[in-house]
Amino acid sequence: MTELIKNSYDAGAKKITVVLNTKRNVLAVIDDGDGMAKEEIEVLLQLAKSNKEYGKKSKHDRLIQGSKGLGFLSVFKFGSDVTWITKSEGENAHRFGIIREEVVKCDNIAEYDVELFASKRTKRGTTILIKLDEYNVRSLKKYFSDEKNSRKILYAFDDSRAIVDLIIDGKKDTSEVRPEILKIEPGMQFLHIMFDSDSEKVLFFYGGKEICSMDSEFKSNRYKLSAELLFYRLTSGGKSKIDPLFYNPKNEDLTPLIYVNDGIFNNYDLYDPNIMGTTKTGKVIRQVIGYIRIKSSDKMIEFNSDRSRFVQNELTDEIMMYVRELNKKIQEEAATIKSNFNMDFIIGRKEISADESKNIDFLKGKINDAFLLKSLVTIEVSEKTGYVRYRVGEHIIDLTIKKPVIVPAFIKIIKTRSVFEIPTEQIDLRNRILEAKNSDGHDINLDDIRITCEYRDIEKCILESVSVACTRVIRYEYTDSKTGPVIEEEILSFIEKREKINVGTIQGELIHFPANGYEIKISRSLNNLVKQINGLNYKENWELAACSLRCVFELTIRALVESNKGVFGDLGKDVGPDIKKIIEHILDDNKIVTEISKSTGMKYPELLKILRGLDVEKIASVIQLGAHSSTTFLAENDITSAGTYAGVFITVVSDLMNNPNL
User: Fold this and answer.
1) Torsion angle (degrees, nearest 10) of CA 140, 144, 149, 151
2) CA geometry: angle at 70 spanning 66 and 74, to 5°?
3) Spatial separation of the C-alpha atoms in residues 41 and 50, rounded to whole Å
4) Residue 90: CA atoms inside 13 Å, Cβ hemisphere, count?
């Protein structure tokens, strides 16, 4: 059928209309080309008289499709009785007919007498009317009813200047709108591939962007080759949405169209989409459409009668070999790119922090440089879903954004209780802070921490010098943006300076100490009180001695409480139970007894015996009685025993306060 219309194309026709009327058994080809002048008709059957050169440019700036003047004979494939009505520029119209059987009878068809008749046709061009027999009517109707065939007639020429209309029993189709392959099912397109023999480059595009290229050396100067291919990744039912123009009528496979010198070449072996099928199944990409264009004016470009195959020769073998190798290269590279779509192109961990998700340079850096489609990757950050999505086509990789771990903000100070001997120097309370972190885990600026003493702000966070024994509660406050207020407190105790107590045993002293040579340091007040008591004649001043002994125990207990030994923080309520609690604390832990023994120089068994022998309840009753009741009930040995017990108590408490190992 393409042979039937190529003469119209060579005649410069802008419109070629093929009409099949099955009721009248007529096939017509109508064009608006140059028409035939009388002298052209007279030599129509003289084949050697044709001056056409295939592949050369015509006066219409078209590549000539015919060559030997055989094109008109194609009409007899469909019927034996053919009529031409033609008009050329500047001449009257002519009508003539040829009957195939009469031509066949001629020994030399050039001798066939073509009789011309006048025609009423007024417009330039040619009409060919072919009378069909019943077989050809049925065959042509079946042929045209298959869009895989009819659309190849419509687009028989790779030239938008020549419109082909096809009218089958009144139903019209046209090539006015030429198919743009990039608009055919764009949602299922995979790769767009371009090749030009002049550049010797194959370019691969995805999503409209070039992703890679490869060289393909081209040495021939006898022809030019270009290709535009479109590979698909078709989903179920997707193939049915592809233009039938790109179907192979033999097996229903998709295939590119091949044009040789702008004329369709109905060959489905030159470019075989299944070329890799027998070797590497994974490298076969069968779903391909497009155009392969070959242009050459070389006389060795020849075809069989229906233009479905080349006549084999050196040039056509070279063309077929090159197209075959180019096909392989493209298939292999396309398969490599396809495998990239299944590649895990993200480097490293799949979980990132919220801060990292906001850093676009960091996110881009996660893409592997070896990923061919790197430039096409889009990055979507969704804090709502908690994902960073990398997308290239249908290939998606998600990174999880770690939810911020909100930890409690905190302020850590050196100690919750500290003791200072008065007078003190000024204290920079910021230096009391060991560590401070907010809920994000970052250091808190110390200037953002409010420091108060007794709920009053401390100017510049400097606590002024203290000269009087007292206790101060220091409060550290910080308001975190996520977790709210953070408060830490410490108690600072300011006490008199600890002074050494004379431990020498003097005959007649009420308070004496069991460890000679051991340095007792508790407080100046206690030191003075012990000296004053030991200077008394307690036998004549029992009441004063008893009351004074109570003060000795109370001052010793208070000193221990203020020493910041945390286990004794609840003492100071009742002297008797307090003494008992301290002694029991010592006896309950052999380590404490051992350390006191080492520090004081007292032998362990002797110290243990003394502590176990202390009659705490008796001591309490003596000092309580002396302070609150008549001394009638006090005996001399009660006072002396209490004095002895006071010396032991002062000694062990001093070691509890000052021994660094306790």
Assistant:
1) 140
2) 105
3) 11
4) 2
Q: Determine the Cα–Cα distance for residues 210 and 194; give it in Å rounded to an integer.
A: 10
pLDDT tier at 630 (50, 70, 90 boundaries)? very low
pLDDT digits (tens, 9 = 90+) for 124-157: 999 999 999 999 999 999 999 999 999 999 999 9
- Rounded to whole angstroms, the Cα distance separating 350 from 51 reads 72
| C-alpha distance from residue 246 to each of 78, 188, 232, 266 (Å) | 26, 16, 13, 11
Q: Would you say residue 660 has pLDDT above 80?
A: yes
Contacts 24+ apart (CB under 8 A), 213-219: 214/329, 214/333, 216/326, 216/329, 218/322
Span 492-535, pLDDT tens digits: 988 876 656 655 444 467 887 777 777 888 888 888 888 888 88
* Three-class SS state of 486: strand
Distances in Å between the alpha carbon of 361 and those of 355, 356, 364, 494? 12, 9, 5, 57
Average pLDDT rounded to a whole number, residues 423-442: 92
Q: Is 212 exposed, middle or buried (0-12, 13-18, 19+ CB in 10 A)?
A: middle
CA distance 309 to 268: 9
**CB-CB contact of 216 with 200 (8 Å):** yes
Distance of alpha carbon 167 from alpha carbon 231, whole angstroms = 32
The full set of domains in the chain, from first to last, is: 2-174 (3.30.565.10), 181-340 (3.30.230), 351-401 (no CATH), 410-495 (2.60.40.10), 500-658 (no CATH)
The closest alpha carbon to 430, from 411, 416, 455, belongs to: 411
What is the Cα–Cα distance from 224 to 34, expressed in whole angstroms? 29
Q: In this structure, are residues 358 and 343 in contact, taking their beta carbons and an 8 Å threshold?
A: no
The chain-wide mean pLDDT, for the chain, equals 88
Return the number of other C-beta atoms located less than 10 Å from residue 362's C-beta.
Answer: 13
Q: What is the pTM of this model?
A: 0.62
